[in-house]
Write a structure and sequence with these properties.
The chain has 553 residues and is mainly beta. Helix content is 2%, strand content 45%. It has two domains: 9-239, no CATH class; 265-551, Neuraminidase (6 Propeller), CATH 2.120.10.80. The two termini are 38 Å apart. It holds the Pfam family Kelch_1.
């Protein structure tokens, strides 16, 4: 248990009197606060000079115009801060977030102070914003240049815990004060040897947290010398109610796949789930005999078993979609080698429609480039393909695609047409239509490894923009699967977590946990309130034959 002493506001009188001795009348009990665009009512970043994270005397803003304001995306694997320009508003310094940013921060060397005969000291302010909803929080910015003293909150069961850091390391003996929210009195305490301080339960709301550290380090700011540095760091903490996590609803009637497969195509027509192709061999090595050429079908209304309803060429890393009652498959690669031979992997430009009457694939105009490790989605009668690469023997010889295409299959003949080039080169991603736009989620970048980044394509303007990154590390976005049902966009990631895009499109909320985590699988809709998870693999248990169903409530 952490030993914490809380001080009532009435006990702060002596502290306030002492503060009057060292602060000028204009800066008494004022600190630098930043409220980010996800916390403010108007969607802007606001910097306040106040006792709490709220507006105060506007005249004091003149004293903080030298503030360095920054922004960061806390979902990045390595968090990097970027400068953010601001303007002086009526009650705050105001700024607008870049599309990917999730948090904001401030830094200001306020000046050299010397009051009441005390030795001169440098007064330094810094701080950040933090929001906790579904995730437990606790991720640090970790940039000592702009945030040398940092305090972050973390959800611990029904309670909250504060962690204090100095130069990126847990800091003992840091004075902490918490105000705001539904608190009738300030909470004060000192961090323990692990840099921790228990807060107990906190209601939803915006809290103002500040910490203090004194450095006995002399120096000079401009032409003024000082003997020590007093650092006040703040965190504007918004606690939001977590979205309700729907309990698993796994069907006990859906049968297993005949064998485990990864990197296959999947689509639904009516009550029938179809999967085609894929890789059934061991990880990290491909051979022709381990590639599937089967088209499997399962009627979810009469789910006796998966049935082979057709065949075609061996393909792995392909995409398959349904347009009306028709299936279309695109791309994929063939392993032109045996199990004991060196890999010779070649991407294809396949484009074909399944003819259920003749049980044959009807060849259509080929993709403009050979492409595998791609994904596809449908808007109306138009198929879009994004991502992937062109394998011409192996991964080292691969060409990462910079293009994306669309094809109206109602045209006669259908023709592939370019869309605006994506601002990325990725493969092993997912592509899903949501509210008339296309969401490109995660994948592997041509440089930098796996990513949780999200890009959005708007067909109306033929333009790209950034969306909210997935929670977690980069591998969460690798080999993910996404689909939208009933005006909600869902994504299934490697850890088995299923996220839903929030109504305002600003974040991903956790809604489900699979019994069998998987990636390189397919998540497909079998009704307006059910998603089925087929195939894939996990690093712990290998390929998955089980088929899970999630009941969306």
């Amino acid at each position: 248990m952490l030993s914490v002493h809380w001080v009532n506001k009435s006990s702060k009188l002596l502290f306030a009197i002492c503060m009057m001795c060292v602060f000028s009348s204009t800066s008494q009990a004022h600190f630098l606060w930043v409220v980010d665009a996800n916390q403010s009512a108007d969607g802007k970043v606001h910097v306040y000079f106040s006792e709490e994270a709220a507006p105060d005397n506007p005249a004091l803003l003149e004293k903080i115009l030298g503030t360095k304001l920054w922004e960061a995306n806390l979902h990045d694997d390595v968090v990097k801060v970027s400068p953010l320009k601001f303007e002086k508003g009526a009650n705050s310094l105001e700024a607008t977030f870049s599309p990917k940013s999730t948090n904001a921060g401030v830094f200001l060397d306020y000046g050299v102070m010397s009051k009441g005969g005390a030795e001169p000291y440098l007064l330094r302010y810094c701080g950040r914003s933090q929001t906790i909803a579904n995730r437990k929080g606790g991720k640090v910015i970790g940039d000592a240049a702009v945030l040398p003293l940092e305090v972050v909150a973390e959800r611990s069961g029904d309670d909250f815990l504060l962690r204090t850091f100095w130069q990126g390391q847990p800091a003992e003996g840091i004075e902490v004060t918490v105000d705001g929210g539904d608190l009738s009195a300030s909470k004060e305490g000192v961090s323990n040897a692990q840099g921790e301080l228990a807060l107990g339960t906190l209601a939803n709301g915006l809290y103002s947290i500040r910490v203090k550290k004194v450095l006995e380090e002399p120096g000079k700011l401009g032409d003024k010398e000082y003997k020590s540095i007093r650092i006040y760091s703040t965190t504007s903490l918004l606690i939001k109610p977590p979205a309700e996590v729907t309990q698993p609803a796994v069907s006990k009637a859906l049968p297993e796949l005949p064998r485990g497969i990864t990197s296959f195509g999947g689509a639904v027509v009516g009550d029938v789930v179809y999967v085609y192709g894929g890789h059934a061999g061991g990880a990290h090595h491909y051979a022709k005999e381990d590639q599937s050429r089967e088209l499997l079908a399962l009627n979810v209304k009469q789910p006796s078993e998966w049935k082979v309803v057709g065949e075609g060429p061996e393909r792995t890393g392909l995409a398959m979609v349904a347009v009306g009652n028709d299936l279309y498959r695109m791309g994929g690669f063939i392993a032109d080698n045996g199990k004991e031979e060196k890999e010779v992997l070649k991407s294809t430009s396949d484009f074909a429609r399944w003819d259920a009457a003749s049980k044959q694939w009807i060849e259509l105009p080929a993709l403009p480039e050979p492409r595998s490790s791609l994904d596809a989605a449908v808007i109306g009668k138009t198929i879009y393909v994004v991502g992937g690469w062109n394998l011409n023997g192996g991964g080292k010889e691969a060409q990462w695609h910079e293009t994306a295409w669309k094809c109206d299959v109602s045209a006669n003949p259908p023709v592939w047409q370019p869309i605006a080039n994506p601002p990325f080169r990725r493969r092993a991603l997912s592509l899903a239509e949501h509210q008339g736009k296309l969401y490109v989620i995660g994948g592997m970048k041509n440089q930098g490894g796996p990513t949780t980044e999200v890009a959005i394509y708007d067909p109306a303007t033929n333009s790209w923009s950034s969306g909210p990154a997935l929670p977690g590390e980069g591998m969460e976005g690798f080999g993910n699967s996404a689909f939208a049902i009933n005006q909600n966009l869902f994504v299934s990631v490697m850890s088995g977590k299923v996220y839903k895009l929030s109504a305002d499109g600003s974040q991903w909320d956790l809604v489900h946990q699979l019994e069998k985590p998987r990636f390189f699988h397919r998540m497909l809709p079998i009704s307006q309130h059910q998603l089925v998870f087929v195939g894939g693999a996990s690093m712990e248990s290998g390929k998955a034959r089980t088929t899970e169903v999630f009941e969306v409530k």
